[in-house]
């Protein structure tokens, strides 16, 4: 009799053993359906020796029900799943689930039905129907997806199907993707670029693990260089995974990719429709040939997919903190990408103009091969950076643009050039209070002020999404029209620009306004067509974009990121400002950057002004070394939360009470988290700080493993944390 051990895709269950019925072929990595009591569960056949469990006697084994018609997860991916679960103190099931992506796809190929507008207008046009007709132009999807997109019920849409305004379309989930042509539009590379490209091509052809740090200034053409590595992979029938930090950047990438290779890449992100997800997953599993997925571009969730024949991984804007996932499995996709490349035996390229200190350190230690591109492509110069001391060059009361910035904007408008004002704050004002009684609008679920959004006339929490319409009178003292906005958000800066330059054409760019591929495409087109004079935006516009007519960048408040005071604040501020500065002067006209600050003497501002990146990194490295912080020491956070404040506190104290006493390891806390209330949960934190050599994960597992908590308490472990709220 054959028996197998399953990794069951349910974190609450341990490994389970089953009998393989006669005639069923399974091997490690096979996806199967197994009976569990009266239910059925999805599982992955795993090497029993790697998945300890109590043996069940043969006689009590139940037979597997079904082997799913998809290829088994390959050994390198199984090792990656184990590594990730182990390193980040996560459950194997939680990590394995990220490899599956689309449960429907596991059932094999199929056809599904989607709907689209026919162009016919129904005889009876209710308001709901009108809304749907208006919202669904160029859309196709299941009725559920369309209903969600249009904000109407499915019943309304079924009515429209009946009336002939929506028609069904049959979609084949296995229809092939058109093949990319590696020679479609080969660029002429500069000598530096060619050198980098040659290294990537060689590494792809060698097919061995090799990590690269592509460290090139903004506008140096990093994308063009790694495109050559991608071309080499395509030419040899291997797949490529390109990770981008945000979906907003995929639109831009897509255009460039299509220009270079003749067809779009395969997308993978959380906003895909069910049928797109299913098609992409099945193409990924199929491999690069025969209409499979050659190049997949995605957010971090694309990292764990079961590529049939991966040949290269690229992590673009590799310094971005959004590669760190802060819920569920708390992993860093940049780091796990390197581990995956190691298990797969392939090269990996981390590309950035402002690499993370951790990456620089690894390059210095010889672990990563660093490739530098020191100059912009095509003779473009890096922009001139100037610091504006806000204590001297003061803006007017209730205004935020200093006289030098106003003048620079005016010059650009006169010359017909474009400007970008950067402030990393959505909405109109970060705090609203009552002039009469001092009442402040606070989120009921979070330790956070409600942010006024004037465009949508709402007060919103940026942490939990809680929203209320902006009231006419103070909820506390009932005085009408007494609300004062404190501080600026991008909307307020845009108002100020409009007030000073009524003729200027403005674009406000935040995740509120640029929330779909269509809108992003529109934004890029209008800027490229010269229909925008001033862009006011959050970090969303700091990277990836290439607007040759943009010659001025104004940083409204360089001190904003330094406030919270977490250990990476300086580095993050440096990266953000260097990136946004890098949007200026990318064409033929030179760029200018004005950085508004109240602390011109702060090391990060001084480094930006002098352009001395190395000195800044060195100083940062020193202070981290002194603090025993990454990359020199290890950190792990333990976050305890509950809807009940006392319960959370008691649990945190219980954990603190049995903290291990070990040399080279220190436990700080528990203390209420800075975000003491988040989405209705009270939170406490502990921070573990240890030497690099200490096996922190094993210690934490043993420490927490011996404790039990009430069901309402959640204990999350965050290894190498980025967020300290
Ligand atoms: N060899 C080349 N031939 C033609 N155009 C090039 C070449 N190299 C770069 N470019 C163009 O120069 C611009 C800047 O390149 P790219 O966007 O790749 O730079 P980057 O290093 O990724 O910059 P950033 O880090 O600021 O995003 C792009 O418009 C790109 O198409
Ligand atoms: Zn909230």
From TrEMBL:
Binds 2 zinc ions per subunit. PROSITE patterns: HELICASE_ATP_BIND_1. Residues 203-373 form the Helicase ATP-binding domain. Its EC number is 5.6.2.4. Initiates the restart of stalled replication forks, which reloads the replicative helicase on sites other than the origin of replication. Recognizes and binds to abandoned replication forks and remodels them to uncover a helicase loading site. Promotes assembly of the primosome at these replication forks. Zn(2+) 1 binds at residues 434, 437, 474, 477. NCBIfam families: priA, PRK05580.2-2. This is Replication restart protein PriA. Its cofactor is Zn(2+). InterPro entries: DEAD/DEAH_box_helicase_dom, Helicase_ATP-bd, P-loop_NTPase, PriA, PriA_3primeBD, PriA_3primeBD_sf, PriA_C, PriA_CRR. CDD domains: DEXHc_priA (cd17929). PANTHER family: PRIMOSOMAL PROTEIN N.
């Amino acid at each position: 009799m054959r028996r197998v051990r399953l990794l069951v895709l349910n974190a609450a269950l341990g490994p389970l053993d089953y009998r393989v019925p006669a005639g069923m072929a399974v091997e490690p990595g096979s996806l199967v359906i197994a009976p569990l009591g009266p239910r059925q569960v999805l599982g992955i056949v795993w090497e029993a020796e790697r998945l300890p469990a109590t043996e069940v006697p043969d006689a009590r084994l139940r037979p597997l029900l079904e082997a799913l018609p998809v290829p088994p997860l390959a050994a390198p991916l199984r090792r990656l799943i184990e590594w990730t679960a182990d390193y980040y103190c996560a459950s194997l099931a939680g990590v394995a689930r990220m490899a599956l992506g689309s449960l429907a796809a596991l059932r094999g190929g199929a056809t599904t039905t989607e709907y689209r507008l026919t162009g016919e207008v129904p005889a009876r046009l209710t308001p709901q129907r009108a809304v749907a007709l208006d919202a669904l132009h160029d859309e196709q999807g299941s009725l559920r997806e369309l209903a969600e997109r249009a904000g109407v019920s499915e019943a309304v849409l079924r009515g429209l199907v009946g009336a002939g305004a929506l028609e069904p379309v049959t979609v084949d989930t296995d229809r092939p993707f058109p093949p990319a042509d590696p020679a479609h539009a080969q660029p002429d590379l500069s000598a530096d670029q060619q050198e980098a490209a040659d290294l990537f091509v060689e590494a792809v052809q060698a097919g061995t693990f090799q990590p690269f740090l592509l460290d090139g200034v903004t506008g140096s053409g990093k994308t063009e260089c790694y495109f050559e590595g991608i071309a080499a992979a395509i030419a040899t029938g291997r797949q490529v995974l390109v990770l981008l930090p945000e979906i907003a950047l995929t639109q831009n990438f897509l255009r460039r990719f299509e220009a270079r290779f003749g067809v779009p890449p395969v997308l993978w992100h959380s906003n895909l429709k069910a049928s797109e997800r299913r098609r992409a997953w099945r193409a990924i599993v199929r491999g690069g040939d025969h209409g499979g997925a050659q190049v997949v571009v995605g957010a971090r969730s694309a990292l764990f997919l079961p590529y049939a024949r991966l040949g290269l991984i690229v992590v673009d804007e590799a310094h971005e903190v959004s590669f760190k996932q802060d819920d569920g499995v708390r992993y860093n996709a940049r780091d796990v990408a390197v581990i995956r490349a190691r298990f797969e035996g392939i090269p990996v390229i981390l590309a950035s103009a402002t690499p993370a200190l951790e990456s620089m350190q690894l390059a210095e230690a010889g672990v990563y091969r660093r490739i530098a591109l020191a100059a912009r492509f095509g003779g473009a110069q890096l922009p001139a950076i100037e610091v504006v001391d806000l204590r001297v060059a003061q803006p007017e009361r209730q205004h935020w643009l200093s006289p030098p910035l106003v003048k620079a904007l005016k010059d650009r408008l006169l010359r017909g050039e474009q400007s970008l004002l950067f402030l990393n704050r959505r909405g109109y004002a970060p705090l609203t209070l009552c002039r009469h009684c001092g009442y402040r609008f606070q989120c009921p679920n979070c330790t956070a002020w409600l942010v006024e959004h004037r465009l949508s006339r709402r007060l919103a929490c940026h942490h939990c999404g809680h929203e209320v319409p902006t009231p006419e009178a103070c909820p506390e003292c009932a005085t009408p029209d007494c609300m004062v906005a404190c501080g600026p958000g991008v909307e307020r800066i845009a108002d100020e620009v409009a007030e000073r330059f009524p003729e200027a054409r403005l674009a406000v760019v935040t995740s509120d306004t640029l929330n779909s591929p269509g809108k992003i495409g529109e934004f890029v087109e209008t800027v490229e067509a010269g229909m925008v004079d001033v862009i006011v935006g959050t970090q969303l516009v700091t990277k990836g974009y290439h607007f040759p007519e943009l010659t001025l960048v104004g940083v409204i408040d360089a001190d904003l990121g330094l406030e919270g005071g977490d250990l990476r604040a300086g580095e993050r501020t440096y990266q953000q400002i260097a990136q946004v500065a890098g949007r200026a002067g990318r064409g033929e006209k030179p760029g200018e950057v004005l950085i508004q600050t109240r602390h011109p003497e702060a090391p990060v501002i001084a480094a930006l002004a002098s352009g001395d990146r190395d000195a800044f990194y060195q100083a940062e490295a020193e202070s981290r070394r002194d603090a025993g912080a990454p990359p020199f020491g290890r950190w792990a956070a333990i976050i305890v939360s509950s809807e009940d404040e006392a319960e959370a506190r008691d649990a945190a104290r219980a954990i603190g009470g049995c903290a291990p006493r070990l040399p080279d390891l220190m436990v700080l806390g528990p203390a209420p988290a800075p975000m003491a209330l988040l989405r209705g949960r009270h939170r406490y934190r502990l921070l573990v700080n240890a030497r690099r050599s200490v096996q922190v994960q094993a210690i934490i597992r043993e420490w927490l493993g011996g404790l039990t908590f009430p069901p309402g308490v959640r204990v999350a472990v965050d290894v190498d944390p980025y967020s300290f709220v």
